[in-house]
Please model this.
Amino acid sequence: MDELPKSIVDPQSDRDAGEQPTEPLTPWQRWGELLIAATVLGLGALALTGAQDIRVSASAVQVSPRLIPQIIGVGLLVVGGWYTVEIIRRPYTGHGEESEDFDPGAKTDWTVLAIIAAGLVCYAILMEFAGFVTASAALFFISALAMGSRSYLRDAAIAIALAVAIFLVFDTWLGVRLPTGVFGEWLSL
Model:
């Protein structure tokens, strides 16, 4: 039976001979990460206190305009707290970059960026006269195409379903009126 390469058996063997593992850093030596965690916690607190300043009229409001800022504020507090606990519980050894799933030496694919930029221009143009659903579905489809998907029928179906779902959530649940465009009669429930 063939023997497995040493790099599969011991992934650490691929390191340069001069590279030694660093000593774990204490949480207080990781002040930069703690500063980021504190900033996220501060932004969460700011979002929650700012949400209280939003005036809400007693008229027929189904959902308070404070809801989204409150959700974001609570989410930021949870993420900031979680990150703080992780910094304190798990010492950093400086080897996280090896596990990253990207190639830092890869060139920027300007074609993809250009196609997505064209999709955004189409979105801005279509929004006015074709409406939110058509513009959003076109943007979603163009973005999937730019990212390399070649399942045109599936992508179109997902784009339309996603655009209609987002429209209905904003229009019916949140009470935010979006441009209906050519589908105005069908989308007004």
Notes: The chain has a mean pLDDT of 80. The CA atoms of residues 25 and 92 lie 6 Å apart. The radius of gyration is 25 Å. The longest helix spans residues 67-89.
